[in-house]
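Lecture notes, unit on binding sites. The following record was shown on slide 14. It pairs a sequence with adenosine-5'-triphosphate.
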Amino acid sequence: MNSLSLRSPAKVNLDLRILGRYPDGYHRLLTLFHRISVCDSLRLVARREALVIHCRHPAVPCDERNIMAKAYRLLKKCFPELPGVDVYLKKVIPVAAGLGGGSGNAAAFLLGMKKLFRLKINRSELMKLGGRLGADVPFFLTETTQALGTCRGDKIKSLQCHAKKWFVLIVSDRGLSTSDVYRKLSRHLPAVSLTKLERTVRIATHFLDSGMLVEADKILKNDLEKPAFQLQPAIQNTVRKAVDLGVPLVRMSGSGPTVFAVFPSLKEARAFARRIKHALKQKVIVCHSY
Ligand code: ATP
């Protein structure tokens, strides 16, 4: 085998709570990751040496700034004899949108490299490497539909997803920098018990599986919405518009600016997508749990 094709899915954060800060400045959080069917495509082709990234998307760097180049450098440290690889990336996931596109690419790249070159690296070593690349990478490495992330978001517990959900993503044409959103976050974080919060979020997943979206809406929260709304008031307007149209569960994903609404069926998702597209003239994507 000298080449491999892979799908690299996106995620939404159904819930995201900031619980505190580590001495190194990183935030301690709890999040409910949910993998969705919006996917980039990756093709890895073995070459004698060096990594060469091919991608036509104007916002994705093909040089050492690409997160896959960082992943290759880390792998090379563990496996000095590692051959080179051409990576052909077809970007479908909106960039800098809170959908974890880069993190997902890094995870797919690591899994693909392990398979292509039969690397002797176990799951926990791979998770450690992933955690060094970005807090969302370990979730994508687990290849599960739904998981709780704690600590920096990199300690993963898979959670069963018993019912496929449908999502309408409302995509902004303005990106939002994750670090700007975190900088704007209030310094006064309320004291919350992680155990209690974890239990509550697990209950919300049962509501979601049963199609009880109004009940899930009462529990699920994204603490980054407030600072993101301050930076880009248009995000809050999008949420308000969706609520006005009668959507029971609508949230911002990650650090934004993408807003998503959840539906139990494709029919309901499509009907909402048509109405919100007409109202806001923004790009929308209909997708499902993956
Ligand atoms: P997250 O939800 O994990 O915070 P995001 O979805 O908001 O991430 P990305 O799409 O990963 O953000 O892009 C963030 C930045 O990373 C962009 O400015 C982009 O230029 C850079 N980047 C580096 N490598 C990649 C990649 N493979 N795909 C997309 N963006 C990349």
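Take-home: The pocket of adenosine-5'-triphosphate is lined by residues 59-61, 65-68, 95-103, 105, 136, 178, 254-255 (CB under 6 Å).
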